[in-house]
Design goal:
Elements lengths: L1 E5 L3 H13 L3 E5 L2 H9 L5 E4 L5 H13 L3 E4 L7 H12 L3
Parallel strand pairs: 1-2, 1-3, 3-4
Helix pairs in contact: 1-4, 2-3
């Protein structure tokens, strides 16, 4: 399993990756659509987390590419929660090792 996090804030993306790694997941992150699409094309990604700040056009392109590779997509809806709470309460329980 390899998780890819994409968002528009580098600090948030880096925090998400560190949290996922601290829970034993292989995780990478980026703020650039082209990098995320290239990572999806490797066929190694099993889960994609799309941050709330990712624009609708980018979001659709990423979801389409993820679907083509059988990747599970998680669209962030933090609703005021910190990144750690969101990942631990919503995303991590939905990941299957």
């Amino acid at each position: 399993m390899k998780v890819l996090a994409i968002g528009r804030g580098l600090e948030v993306v880096n925090t998400a990756v560190a949290i996922l790694q601290s829970h034993g997941y292989v995780a990478v992150g980026t703020t650039a659509d082209d990098d995320a699409l290239a990572e999806l094309d490797t066929g190694e990604i099993t889960h994609l987390i799309i941050g709330g700040g990712v624009e609708p056009d980018s979001r659709e392109q990423l979801k389409k590419q993820a679907q083509a590779h059988g990747v599970t997509v998680h669209e962030a809806e933090r609703n005021g929660r910190g990144i750690e709470s969101y990942l631990e309460e919503v995303v991590i329980p939905s990941l299957h090792r």
